[in-house]
Structures are given as structure tokens and as C-alpha cells.
Design a protein that fits this description.
Number of helices: 11
Structural class: alpha/beta
Number of strands: 7
Largest sheet: 7 strands, mixed
Length: 334
């Protein structure tokens, strides 16, 4: 009898846990307090950095310059830019909120937002908040924290409209091609949904769109060093993901002319210290990720000297432990 009671109790606990996991997230009670406490300083009231406002349903759906229409994608937290940015490392340029602008979200808060989006991102009865702007502290009308705003955003480069036929070919090959923001012809392109099938042949389709590509994600694809030659004309490319590809030193030689590149992810590639010499002239670089590559600490330090304003991230490494003591090594010397 006790055994059956125990089994019954376990089943009840399992059912209870499952019910909690499926419990509907209430935006007003659970999500809005997080957003108002961490996001409104930059994205509420009169402030809308990057063209993004998060104090209304309309603002969420409209998005900003870097994430037009995809801040949240109901049912798909993995594709929602908000989830990506709040989960970034604290020293990443794209993390929200940025360093010095508020406390970074806890794992529990991030999980709550992910679950809310997965459940369909229901705002309930909430439509908007009236966010009071900081009071002006002088006759010029500047707000009290105007000095904390930092430098003004650099305007996006102006380019001609992309060739519609070239975009169609890319999409037919499985690429996700999106406008970077409203009122610009710049593009964000990624192959995340079918990365394992993408080869140099598909990457070559990017060539006619070279000046329009601003953000390119080739992570997990089968692009080779030779395939990166298609990127040479991308003068406006700011972000490049090459993590978990076979790219090596030879491939980096094709990146020398990417004079606008700010973000480069080489995690888990075959790049070595020698390949980093190709990056020394890219003075715009702000973040370089080298986790689990073949780059040594010395090589990373050398690159840092060439690019002192860039964050060179080698990832976390397990501390070296002392050699194990064996009976033989433990014997005193005669």
C-alpha cells in the first residue's frame, strides 16, 4: 500500500510540475515589470535608441533599425531578437540593456520572456505605458541624464536598392533575407534554417548584393576558405558569423578589405595565430570571438595590441590543476 501511495504522490508531483510549466504567462504582472525596469531608460517615452520603442504593443511589433519587425516573433523565441540580445555576454556590444544602462537580466527573467514568446507573446489588455521623460536640468532643454547618452548613433550608409532577382535566388536557396531597418536598402542575411546544406555555391549568390549586405550569418554552413572570396566586395558588412565552419587562415585573407566590419565570430574554426594577421588592419572591429579555435593566448594578445579598442574573446578556460600525486612521486628523495 505504501508503495502505491508513493507512486501516486510522484505522479501528482509530476502532473503539478507539468501544469506549472504550461501556466499562461501574464504580461502585465510578469513581463511588463521587467521591461519597464530595464528597457524604458533607452526605449521608452521620448527615448528610442536604434529607432526601438518598447513602451507599447505597436513599438514591439514595429521593431527598430537593427530588428525591424522581429524584436519578438510569437511562438519562436529562438528567432526573436529580444531573446538573443538579453542573453548575450555582458561585454557584447549588442547586449540589452548595455553596460551602465541598467542591471542585466537574470536567467529566470530571460526564461520567463522566452516562455511568454513561446506561448504566443500575448499582451493581454496592455496596449501602452505613459513613460515620463526625465526633467530638463537647464534652459537648453537637455535632460538630466543627457550626458549619459553617449555619442550619437552613426547614420547607416546609403546604398542603392538590391537587385530583386538576386534576392529571389538567395531565398530559393534557403536564405532568410530581411531589410536591416525601415527606410534603408541594407540587408540582413542568414542561412540558419538550412545551414548544413549551404556550400560555396549558395554563398556565391551573395556577390550581386555585396554593397547591401550589412549583417551576414554563415554559422554552421559548409562554406570553405575559397567560398569567402564572395565576401570581398562587402564594404558595408558590419557583422559576420563564421562560427562552426571549416574556415581557416586562408579564408581570413579574403576579409582584409571589409573596412566596416565590427563583429566577427570565429568560434570553433581552424583559424590560428597566423590567420589573425589578416585582421590587424580592420580598425573598426569591436568584437572578435575565438573560442575553441586554434589561436593561442599569445596570438590573441598580439591582435589586441593591433586593435586596442576591440574585445578579443577567447572564452572560458578550465584552470590548470596541480599534477596528481602518485605513490611513486610521493616517496621522499634519498
Amino acid at each position: 500500500m505504501k508503495r502505491f501511495l508513493s507512486i501516486g504522490a510522484c505522479l501528482l508531483l509530476a502532473i503539478s510540475a507539468s501544469a506549472m510549466a504550461d501556466e499562461k504567462i501574464d504580461f502585465t504582472k510578469q513581463i511588463q515589470p521587467i521591461i519597464s525596469g530595464t528597457c524604458y531608460k533607452c526605449h521608452g517615452g521620448a527615448k528610442h535608441k536604434g529607432g526601438l520603442k518598447l513602451d507599447s504593443v505597436e513599438g514591439f511589433k514595429k521593431g527598430g533599425k537593427d530588428a525591424a519587425g522581429k524584436v519578438i516573433i510569437p511562438g519562436n523565441p529562438e528567432k526573436s531578437d529580444m531573446v538573443r540580445r538579453i542573453a548575450l555576454p555582458k561585454d557584447d556590444d549588442d547586449v540589452m540593456p548595455p553596460d551602465g544602462k541598467g542591471e542585466h537580466l537574470t536567467k529566470e527573467q530571460i526564461k520567463l520572456i522566452e516562455t511568454w514568446i513561446k506561448q504566443g507573446a500575448d499582451f493581454g489588455s496592455w496596449t501602452a505605458d505613459k513613460v515620463a521623460d526625465a526633467p530638463a536640468d537647464d534652459k537648453s532643454g537637455k535632460t538630466a541624464d543627457a550626458a549619459d547618452e553617449g555619442p550619437k548613433e552613426i547614420p547607416l550608409p546609403t546604398v542603392a536598392a538590391a537587385d530583386a532577382g538576386a534576392i529571389d535566388k538567395l531565398r530559393a536557396a534557403g536564405a532568410l533575407v530581411l531589410p536591416l531597418a525601415q527606410n534603408t536598402n541594407l540587408l540582413s542575411i542568414e542561412f540558419t534554417s538550412n545551414a548544413s546544406t549551404i556550400t560555396d555555391q549558395q554563398v556565391a549568390l551573395l556577390a550581386p548584393l555585396a554593397i547591401q549586405v550589412y549583417d551576414l550569418n554563415l554559422a554552421n554552413t559548409k562554406v570553405t576558405d575559397e567560398g569567402l572570396k564572395s565576401l570581398e566586395g562587402m564594404k558595408n558588412l558590419h557583422r559576420l558569423h563564421l562560427e562552426k565552419t571549416t574556415v581557416s587562415d586562408a579564408g581570413l585573407s579574403h576579409l582584409k578589405g571589409l573596412t566596416s566590419l565590427e563583429y566577427l565570430n570565429l568560434y570553433s574554426t581552424g583559424v590560428t595565430d597566423g590567420g589573425l594577421e589578416n585582421l590587424g588592419g580592420l580598425k573598426t572591429l569591436k568584437n572578435v570571438y575565438l573560442w575553441q579555435s586554434k589561436v593561442s593566448d599569445a596570438g590573441a594578445d598580439t591582435l589586441k595590441k593591433k586593435l586596442p579598442s576591440a574585445a578579443i574573446d577567447m572564452g572560458w578556460k578550465e584552470p590548470t590543476t596541480a599534477a596528481a600525486v602518485t605513490p611513486e612521486t610521493a616517496k621522499p628523495a634519498k
